[in-house]
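haha ok so turns out i had the wrong file open the whole time. this is the CORRECT one, sorry everyone. sequence first:
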Amino acid sequence: QVQLVESGGGLVEPGGSLRLSCAASGSTMDGYASAWFRQAPGKEREGVSCFSHSDGDTYYADSVKGRFTISRDNDKNTVYLQMNSLEPEDTAVYYCALATMLWCDDNSPIAPSDFDSWGQGTQVTVSS
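then structure:
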C-alpha cells in the first residue's frame, strides 16, 4: 500500500525551472525503481525519466536529456525531477510512479505498464 503524492508543479515562463517532488508513504522505496511520466492533452502518456534505487542508474527521454535531472533522497523517501530550460512543449501533467520488478538504464525506455503505483499528477505549464 504505497501512496505517492506529487508537488512542485505550476506555471513558469520558457527558460525557467521547476523542481517536482514525489513523496512516498506506506512503504519504503527500497528495491523499487522510480519514474516520472507526463501526458499532454491528446497525447499518450510518455516516460520522462527513471531512477533505479539499487544502483542509481537512470534513463532520460531524448527530449529532456541535458535539461532534466532525476534524484532521490533516501531518508525522505522522495524522488525529485529538476527541470531546467523549460519549453512550451514540456507542458503536461506529470506523474510519478514506482515499479518493483525492473531497473532503469540509458538504453531502456520506460512504459506505463511496467509500473505498479502512481501519483495523482501535477500540472506543469510553460507559457510563452
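The chain has no helices and eleven strands.
again sry for the mixup
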